[in-house]
């Protein structure tokens, strides 16, 4: 019970470092969305397919460039922007937003036509400031609505000329491979080998980068074709939240429970090893002050030793798993660990100084 009480005491001490988060949510609809006919009879498969499609659409709409514009416009994460760490700022924004499907409705179609669905989903964003949560959610919802115009233009635009460049680089790689094999047969010419190797590595890097761009463009065009005719509609504007997000506090409580359970597992091994039973002659005399004829020591058998080691390993693995689960929940639902560490580091000097003044 001591480890559990200690963890809960630390948890209560750290509670002021966790600012309340406010969640603002917008409700949107996309229709019509094409659906394979074989999935129309299976609600589970239909939902999985729609969630996958919406995830791909969200990745395209909420691209790095779009998120960077939102971060700059809303003046989010000033510390990360000052350090020119834009990727970390985008990752933080993605962590604070959520897209969730709430309803899927089959649209009536004629015989032989592809099945279509109307998808209703929510877009939410959490932030310590209620007005920031509302403003960012409005901007993110506007990105989906602007996709109506973007998708219309992309349906009539020609594909980017990346395929020919990719094939040209592939041919150069093949030629460099043959040249490298020929040069390597002459070990005396080390400079030539190094030059061809460097050219080969640079060409391969260019090929991979161009191939990645080509695949992204093909995926975007494929989504645009599948999404042709579909439109986004805003059903409910994001309101200004008045109450903190309850999920955050429940997650904070759950993290404390997991860490307390993990902390209670480790002393069990020590108690099993050192606690319980009478150890030594003095302990026997103290427990029963009678003459002793002899002392028979406890000899641990191989089976008992293996069982003890197994229990120790299981407890240790369980403690590690619970700790990792607690950290994951904390990172996803409470606060990024980096920000929590920064807040803790800033709060420690003032807490120590206050304690010294009291003493």
UniProtKB/TrEMBL annotation:
Keyword Transmembrane helix applies: yes
Keywords: Membrane, Transmembrane, Transmembrane helix
Residues spanning the membrane: 250-271, 313-334
Protein name: Polysaccharide chain length determinant protein, PEP-CTERM locus subfamily
Naturally occurring in which organism (per UniProt): Allochromatium warmingii (Chromatium warmingii)
């Amino acid at each position: 019970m001591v480890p559990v009480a200690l963890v809960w005491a630390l948890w209560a001490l750290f509670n002021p470092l966790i600012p309340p988060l406010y969640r603002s949510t917008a409700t949107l609809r996309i229709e019509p969305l094409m659906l394979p006919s074989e999935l129309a009879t299976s609600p589970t498969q239909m939902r999985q397919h729609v969630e996958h499609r919406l995830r791909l659409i969200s990745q395209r709409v909420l691209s790095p460039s779009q998120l960077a514009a939102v971060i700059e416009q809303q003046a989010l994460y000033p510390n990360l922007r000052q350090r020119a760490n834009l990727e970390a700022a985008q990752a933080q924004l993605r962590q604070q937003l959520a897209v969730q499907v709430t309803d899927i409705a089959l649209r009536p179609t004629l015989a032989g036509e592809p099945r279509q669905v109307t998808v209703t989903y929510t877009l939410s964003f959490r932030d310590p400031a209620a007005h920031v949560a509302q403003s960012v959610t409005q901007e993110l919802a506007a990105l989906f609505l602007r996709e109506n115009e973007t998708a219309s233009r992309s349906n009539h635009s020609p594909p980017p000329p990346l395929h020919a460049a990719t094939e040209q680089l592939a041919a150069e790689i093949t030629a460099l491979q043959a040249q490298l094999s020929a040069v390597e047969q002459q070990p005396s010419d080390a400079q030539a080998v190094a030059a061809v190797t460097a050219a080969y590595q640079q060409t391969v890097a260019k090929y991979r980068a161009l191939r990645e761009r080509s695949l992204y463009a093909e995926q975007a065009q494929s989504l645009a074709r599948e999404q042709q005719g579909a439109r986004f509609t805003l059903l409910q504007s994001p309101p200004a939240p008045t109450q903190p997000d309850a999920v955050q506090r429940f997650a904070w409580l759950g993290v404390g429970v997991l860490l307390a359970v993990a902390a209670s597992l480790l002393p069990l091994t020590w108690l099993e090893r050192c606690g319980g039973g009478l150890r030594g002659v003095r302990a026997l005399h103290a427990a029963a002050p009678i003459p002793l004829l002899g002392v028979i020591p406890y000899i641990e058998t191989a089976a008992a030793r293996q069982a003890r080691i197994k229990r120790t390993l299981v407890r240790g693995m369980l403690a590690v798993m619970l700790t990792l689960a607690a950290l994951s929940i904390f990172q996803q639902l409470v606060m990024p660990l980096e920000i929590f560490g920064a807040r803790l580091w800033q709060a420690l000097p003032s807490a120590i100084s206050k304690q010294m003044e009291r003493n």
